[in-house]
Design brief:
Elements lengths: L3 E4 L2 E4 L4 E7 L9 E6 L6 E6 L5 E3 L7 E6 L4 E6 L8 E8 L3 E3 L3 E6 L1
Parallel strand pairs: 2-11
Antiparallel strand pairs: 1-3, 3-8, 4-5, 4-9, 5-6, 7-8, 9-10, 9-11
């Protein structure tokens, strides 16, 4: 069993920045791909960014050039640096981590005011 604990959400004005963190509890299995997803009210959950254990990254087109995903394998932690935030980035952001199965965090609210 792996627990993912997110932190770093909050309220920010448009154009501002936030950094999300997600720490995975100790596991006997290596955590492979980790990522961030988000869900806005009335919408489906969507991919924001993912990063493999070997640091290959993938981003949604809507966040390319503004968000940066990174990870520390020694700490089983993934980060999401969000710059130039827009009101449409407002959502609950969920951390995802994968061993032989997929795990999800509880979510952290990000609100961007115009």
């Amino acid at each position: 069993q792996v627990q993912l604990v997110e932190s770093g959400g909050g309220l920010v004005q448009a154009g501002g920045s936030l950094r999300l963190s997600c720490a995975a509890s100790t596991t006997n299995f290596p955590i492979n791909t980790m990522g961030w997803y988000r869900q806005a009210p009335g919408k489906q959950r969507e991919l924001v960014a993912t990063i493999t254990r070997g640091f290959f990254t993938n981003y949604a087109d809507s966040v390319k050039g503004r968000f940066t995903i990174s990870r520390d394998n020694n700490k089983n932690t993934v980060y999401l640096q969000m710059n130039s935030l827009k009101p449409e980035d407002t959502a609950v952001y969920y951390c995802n981590g994968n061993t032989w199965r997929s795990y999800w965090g509880q979510g952290t609210q990000v609100t961007v005011s115009s």
